[in-house]
Amino acid sequence: MTDATQSGPMLAADGTPLKKSLARSLRRRKLRALALIAPLLLFVMLSFVIPIVSMLMRSVENGIVAETLPLTVVELQNWDAEGGELPDEALYAAFIKDMIVAVEAKTHTRLGTRLNYEQTGMSSMFRKSGRNIKRLDPEADAPFKEKLIEIHDGWGDVETWRTIKTHAVPITNGYFLNAVDMRRTPEGAQAQPEDKQILIKLFGRTLMMSLIITGACILLAYPVSYLLATLPMRVSNLLMILVLLPFWTSLLVRTSAWKVMLQQQGVINETLVWLGLVADDARLVIINNQFGTIIAMTHILLPFMILPMYSVMQTIPPSYTRAAKSMGATNWTTFWRIYFPQSIPGIGAGSILVFILAIGYYITPEIVGGTKGVFISNRIAYHISSSLNWGLAAALGTILLAVVLLLYWCYDKIVGIDNVKLG
Amino acid sequence: MKVTITTLMASALAAVAGGAMAQEMTIVSWGGAYSKSQLKAYHEPYSEKTGITILNDDSSNEAVAKLRAMNEAGNITWDVVDVVASDAIRLCDEGLAMEIDHDTMLEPAPDGSPASEDFGELIVSDCYIPSIVYSTTFGYRTDLVGDNPPTEICAVFDLETYPGKRSLEKRPINNMEWALLCDGVAKDDVYDVLATPEGQDQALAKLDTIKDSVVWWSAGADTPQLLADGEVVMGSTYNGRLFSVIEEQNQPVAMLWDAQVFDIDGWIIPAGLDEERKQRALDYLRFATDTQRLADQAKYISYGPARASSAPLVGQHAELGIDMAPHMPTDPENAKNTFLYNYEFWADYRDDIDAKFQAWLAQ
Amino acid sequence: MSNDAAFVEFQRVQKSYDGEVLVVKDLNLSMPKGEFLTMLGPSGSGKTTCLMMLAGFETATHGEIMLDGKPINNIPPHKRGIGMVFQNYALFPHMTVAENLSFPLEVRKMGKDQREEKVKRALDMVQMGAFGSRRPAQLSGGQQQRIALARALVFEPELVLMDEPLGALDKQLREHMQFEITRLAHELGITTVYVTHDQTEALTMSDRVAVFDDGRIQQLAPPDLLYEEPENSFVAQFIGENNTLEGVVKSIDGDSCVVVLDDGSEIDAKPVNVHKAGDRTKVSIRPERVEFNKDRLHADAHTLKATVKEFIYMGDVFRFRLSVAGNDDFIIKTRNAPDAVKLRPGQEVEIGWLAQDCRALDA
Question: Does residue C296 carry a pLDDT above 70?
Answer without folding.
Answer: yes
